[in-house]
Design brief:
By secondary structure, the chain is an alpha/beta fold. Helices cover 36% and strands 17% of the residues.
Length: 327
């Protein structure tokens, strides 16, 4: 099974969200009141004791809904090689996404729970491919995880509303158990693609299976969902790219009260902000292509000089040009 190649056991059960406290806004800023993951958690397995995120593994049911609310990558799906699989599927005619309980059909992307299916992944697949995307929810009615299927349906509906019919019409929700493949040639094409994906995924696992340094607060990292969106917007047509920029990227304004203290730079989990010193003039540089909109910079700014706004002009985003502000 493909899932055995790309799923990673980073906890006792192997189907729980990955937790990296160094990425959590509560860790990076003690004054942060972010509770997005806690609000999404149906089992109340997430708490904040002494401002520190705690995940109770015995209570968590592995629905992965919390990962969709975390913009910094503190909580992520237990899945390796998603970027490599994404690139492998760009020329496919059919992309099947399901949960690990689906035993009827093979899937290109098989998550421990479809609650971890993000809008960003859907948008990226729709934009970078011409494939029909089948999302198999046939096992959801028998699942003990309450309301997950309805939340998934809401995510899909949101994407279908945001994007034009030529994209959203390619999403097919499968609610009843059935075979996806109507003829022998179609099955052969699927398993050929599956073989290629498995090969690349195995390569990714062997490549990444090296000792890693201890995670630290200062470590800057771009979440995988953001990387997928960056790839998608490069390959999108102007109108589609503009829609992605408007709905999933952010713009920033900085007023004259900024004193260049650098606190926003330190708290930013992706490295989207930095200070430039040229000709004895300080400038705060904002890089919108790697900003996730977590708002940590605004929260920590004592001067309240930073305002982050959803949506940005595609021309300012394409090419990933840094924008100098607050000179």
């Amino acid at each position: 099974m493909l899932s055995s190649l790309v799923s990673t056991d980073n906890n006792q059960r192997g189907n729980l969200p990955r937790l990296d406290l160094s990425r959590c806004l509560r860790t990076r800023n003690r004054n942060s009141n972010c509770t997005k993951c806690q609000i999404l958690c149906q089992k109340k397995a997430i708490s904040f004791e002494q401002k520190k995120l705690t995940l109770e593994e015995d209570v968590c049911n592995g629905c992965l809904l919390c990962t969709g609310g975390c913009k910094t990558g503190a909580l992520t799906i237990p899945f390796d090689g998603l970027g490599d699989i994404f690139l492998s599927l760009c020329k496919s005619d059919l992309i099947v996404i399901s949960c690990e309980k689906n035993l009827i059909n093979e899937s290109h992307i098989k998550l421990s729970c479809l609650g971890g299916l993000s809008e960003e992944l859907l948008v990226s697949l729709l934009t970078a491919t011409n494939a029909k995307i089948k999302i198999d929810l046939s096992n959801c009615p028998q699942c003990e995880k309450e309301n997950v299927s309805s939340i998934i349906a809401e995510k899909i509906h949101k994407v279908m509303v945001i994007f034009p019919d030529k994209l959203s019409s390619r999403i097919d929700i499968v609610s009843k158990t059935k075979s996806y493949y109507t003829n022998f040639q179609e099955r052969r094409a699927f398993f050929r693609a599956l073989r290629d994906v498995a090969y690349k995924s195995t390569q990714a696992i062997w490549t990444n299976n090296k000792p890693t340094s201890k995670k630290s607060y200062s470590n800057k990292k771009i979440p995988e969902n953001r990387q997928l969106l960056r790839h998608a917007i490069v390959n999108a047509h102007d109108s589609t790219g503009a829609t992605i920029a408007e709905n999933y990227f952010f713009s920033m304004t900085i007023d004259a009260s900024c004193n260049f203290c650098g606190m926003c730079i330190g708290v930013c989990p992706t490295g989207a902000l930095k200070i430039s010193r040229e000709d004895k003039t300080k400038s705060l540089i904002f890089q919108p292509h790697i900003c996730t909109g977590c708002d940590a910079c605004h929260e920590i700014c004592k001067q309240r000089a930073i305002v982050l706004t959803k949506g940005i002009d595609l021309k300012k985003l394409t090419g990933y040009t840094a924008h100098i502000m607050g000179q």
